[in-house]
Amino acid sequence: MLRTTLKACLLLAVAVEFGMSTVQAQNGFWADLFSDQSDCVQFVASGQAMYMGRNSRVVPGGSPIAGPDARLLDPDNAAFSHEPGYRFLIGVQSPEHRIEAVFSQYGDWQWARSGSLTAGLSFDGAAGTSWPAGANTLAVGSLFEPLRIASTAGLGGEGDEDDGLGPNAGFNDPLPTYQVYYNSSLQDLQVNMISNDPCAEVRIGFGYRNLQLNENAGVLIRGSYRATDIGAANNGLSHAALTGPGGLTFMGGAANGFGDEAAPGNGGLPDQLTLSHQALTSNDLNGFQMIVDACLLDLPRFNITTYVKAGAYHNHARGRVRERYTGTGGDFSQYGRDFEDSKDVVSFVGGVAVKAGIPLSNHLQFTGGYEGNFISGVALSPEQASGIHGNRYQVATDGQLVVHGATFGLELTY
Questions:
Q1: Distances, alpha carbon 230 to alpha carbons 130, 158, 161, 227, in Å
Q2: Could you give the CA distance from residue 22 to residue 20 in angstroms, rounded to a whole number?
Q3: Residues 6+ apart with CB under 8 A from 7
Q4: Separation between Cα atoms, residue 101 and residue 44, nearest integer Å
Q5: Measured distance CA(326)–CA(332) in Å, rounded
Q6: Closest Cα partner for 163 from 127, 133, 197, 199?
Q7: How many DSSP H helices and E strands does the chain contain?
């Protein structure tokens, strides 16, 4: 019913406009169609479709593993596609000023990759010994640092075995599998006042702006746990090593760590071990911006304008990190750690756009253009590992991103 009503209203508006144009044609159609209507107070409304992309550079991101498959798990390789969005504007203007409210939904960007590694994964740098040369290893200071510490004697962990996910030198296990994903969304609300002198080539304005940037990123690795003895046999990675030097919290199941094929109760089969890391961030930016608007070309049937916007913002940034290490086999054991933090920082947002307009009547104009927005000083999900220091966490807010793309729509002035 609603769609039918909207269609009827649209058809009626088109018919009225067409009828008015037909009558006006007797007194000079083209002169009246494109006559100046800027000498009175006018209502302005527009709707635009947006097709936006964003960059995927994360600093200091990086893969949680080192070795031949590091690039597969690196969020810096995320390839976001352009996604649809929308923008609505409503305002009022006089020959001197224009006041407008603008809401933009830039898009929801999603990227994911999954598959199998091409080699096993050593937790304690045993590639070339218990794991073949060229195997993957856990990266130093990266997402799964507690597991690397718990299994490395030189860091206070266990030294009686080399730990990791097969295949290794002794077992031809199926290759570990992985999943990595990165999701991001951005929207903003603006209330602006801009000078509207039709004789001025450059118009100056200012406004309030709120931006909401929310992200979710994670990595998961799963494979057969192996513990190759190089000292006293203990058949696994102990509860004491995981909760002591590893700094993990026991989350549930059996408090006996992770076991290989020789662990009691495993029946000759190794635990299937899953490593998972998830980070969620949100940014609430509030501030004021300066606006410079200029007309590059103004013809009766075509115009080109541009604007530059820049401002400093108060950003309330929040971050949550969740890590889990889950072993299943003879029994179920889970260890992990959770962090949460928020802080207030100063962020910068700048933007530039070029827009073309084609008047369709005295009151209606088709618009299309391209814009880019630069945002710095925000919390990006893949960067949150850099905020973890031991068992302390501070949300990392050094992120930068660029959002850019095309826009097109209709603008009504009446």
A1: 9, 11, 5, 9
A2: 5
A3: none
A4: 10
A5: 7
A6: 127
A7: 4, 19
Q: Which helix (H) or strand (E) holds 103?
A: strand 97-116
Tokens of 201: 């080539």
Query: Over 204-221, what HEC string results?
Result: EEEEEEEEEEEEEEEEEE
d(CA 319, CA 281): 4
Residue among 385, 413, 378 nearest 399 (CA): 378
DSSP string, 180-191: EEEEEEEEEEEE
Six-digit token string for 309: 């916007």
Type of residue at 138 = L
CB 257: neighbour CB atoms within 10 A? 27
382 φ, ψ (degrees, to nearest 5):
-65, -15
- 79's CB contacts (< 8 A; 6+ apart) are 56, 111
Q: Which helix (H) or strand (E) holds 294?
A: strand 272-299
Strands 136-138 and 121-122: parallel
pLDDT 10s digit of each residue in the chain, 414 long? 334 433 433 433 333 344 444 434 444 444 444 455 556 789 999 999 999 999 877 765 579 999 999 999 988 888 899 999 999 999 999 988 999 999 999 989 999 999 999 999 999 988 888 999 889 999 988 889 999 999 998 899 998 899 999 999 989 999 999 999 999 999 999 999 999 876 678 999 999 999 999 999 999 999 999 999 887 777 899 999 999 999 999 999 999 999 998 788 788 899 999 999 999 999 999 999 999 999 999 888 999 999 999 999 999 999 999 999 999 987 899 999 999 999 999 999 999 999 999 999 989 999 999 999 999 999 999 999 989 998 899 999 999 999 999 999 999 999
**Coil, helix or strand for 337?**
strand
Full DSSP string of 347-371:
EEEEEEEEEEEEE-SSSEEEEEEEE
- The Cα angle at residue 250 between residues 174 and 150, in degrees rounded to 5: 60
